[in-house]
Specification:
The chain is of the alpha/beta class and 325 residues long. 41% of the residues lie in helices and 9% in strands.
C-alpha cells in the first residue's frame, strides 16, 4: 500500500488544465467516433472507453515519454493519453494506408512505437505477458524505464494474469498492472463471475503492493501512480492498481444498451454525477476552457478529414509485414 501519498487539496492550474485537455480530448474523439460509426466509414469494431478515461489519463500522466504501455482492444484512451497520433488512429479505423497499423489492424490493434505503446491486442489478457516481457527487457536495460499494462476485470480471470503476477514479482520487474474494473465481462456482471471481490487481496498474495481507487478520481489515480512509478524506478518491483470505473456505452459499438437486460441505467447515474471530464471542466478558467475545447474540435475535424482523404492499402500489400524478412 502507498498510504503516505495524498492528493493535494488544490492541484496546480497547470495540472488541472493538462489533465482536463487530455480527458476532454479523449471523450470528444470517442463521441465523434460513435457518431461516425453507423455510416460504415469506420471499417472495424470499436470498443469505446467513454466514462473510463480518467484511468488512462491519470496513470500515463505520471510516466515519462520513454516508458512503455500496453493496452487491450479498448485502447483508444491509452493510445491517445500516451501521445499517439490522432490522424493515424482515425485513418486506422477507416482502414486507410496512413493508419498506425497501415490500415490492417483497425480500432483493436492501435500501436505507436514512437511513443512506446506496444500494439494493442484483441484477445483478452494477451497484453499482460507482453508487458511483463517488456519489463524484463527494461530491467536488463538498466535505465530506470518502466512498463504499464492496462487490463479489464475480465482479464483477471485468465490464467496468464496469475502467471504474469508470479513472474513479475519473482524477478522484481518494473511493471505496473492497472485493472480498469467496470464490473462487466462483455455482458456478464462481476457478481456472477467472482466468488470473492477481493481482487487486491488476491494479487497481494504474490508479494505485490496494491491500491484501489473506488471513485474514479483522476488526481488520486495520478498521485498513486506517481508514487508507484518512483518506487519501481528505484527497484521495488511490480505494483497493482485497481480502479473501479464504469463503461457508459455498449461493450462493442457506439450505442447505449441499458435495455439489454444485463444492467440498469441507475447503475450509470452516480458515475455521470462524478464524471471527471465535467469535474475538471469546472476547475478550469472559463475562457481557457473554451480555448481548449475549440482546439480539440479543430483537431478532430482535421483528423476526420484526413482519414477520409487517405487511400486504402494496395492489394499487393496484403502480405507485407506478415513474416520477418
Amino acid at each position: 500500500m502507498i498510504a503516505d501519498k495524498t492528493v493535494p487539496d488544490r492541484p496546480s492550474d497547470g495540472d488541472v488544465e493538462r489533465l482536463y485537455r487530455s480527458l476532454r480530448r479523449i471523450r470528444r474523439i470517442e463521441e465523434e467516433v460513435a457518431a461516425i460509426y453507423p455510416s460504415d466509414k469506420i471499417k472495424s469494431p470499436v470498443h469505446l472507453s467513454i466514462g473510463q478515461e480518467a484511468v488512462s489519463v491519470g496513470v500515463i500522466d505520471a510516466l515519462q515519454p520513454s516508458d512503455v504501455v500496453a493496452g487491450s482492444y479498448r485502447g483508444h484512451a491509452v493510445y491517445l493519453a500516451k501521445g499517439g497520433d490522432l490522424k493515424a488512429m482515425l485513418a486506422e479505423m477507416y482502414g486507410r494506408q496512413a493508419g498506425c497499423a497501415r490500415g490492417k489492424g483497425g480500432s483493436m490493434h492501435l500501436i505507436s512505437a514512437e511513443h512506446h505503446m506496444i500494439g494493442a491486442s484483441a484477445v483478452v489478457g494477451t497484453q499482460i505477458p507482453h508487458a511483463v516481457g517488456y519489463a524484463l527487457a527494461l530491467k536488463r536495460e538498466g535505465t530506470g524505464r518502466v512498463a504499464v499494462v492496462f487490463l479489464g476485470d475480465g482479464a483477471t480471470e485468465e490464467g496468464v494474469f496469475y502467471e504474469s503476477l508470479n513472474f513479475a514479482s519473482l524477478h522484481r520487474l518494473p511493471v505496473m498492472f492497472v485493472c480498469e474494473n467496470n464490473r462487466l465481462a462483455i455482458h456478464t456482471p462481476l457478481e456472477k463471475r467472482w466468488a470473492s471481490e477481493q481482487l487486491c487481496e488476491r494479487v497481494a498474495t504474490f508479494g505485490i503492493p496494491t491500491e484501489r481507487v473506488t471513485d474514479g478520481d483522476v488526481f488520486r489515480i495520478r498521485a498513486i501512480s506517481e508514487a508507484a512509478v518512483a518506487a519501481m524506478r528505484a527497484g521495488a518491483g511490480p505494483f497493482f492498481l485497481e480502479c473501479d470505473i464504469y463503461r457508459w456505452r455498449e461493450h462493442v459499438g457506439p450505442a447505449e444498451d441499458f435495455n439489454a437486460g444485463y444492467r440498469d441505467r441507475s447503475d450509470l447515474e452516480p458515475w455521470v454525477a462524478s464524471d471527471q471530464v465535467t469535474r475538471l471542466a469546472q476547475m478550469v478558467d472559463p475562457a481557457q476552457r473554451l480555448s481548449i475545447d475549440a482546439e480539440i474540435e479543430a483537431e478532430i475535424a482535421a483528423a476526420v478529414d484526413y482519414a477520409e482523404q487517405m487511400p486504402f492499402p494496395e492489394p499487393e500489400e496484403l502480405y507485407d509485414g506478415v513474416f520477418a524478412s
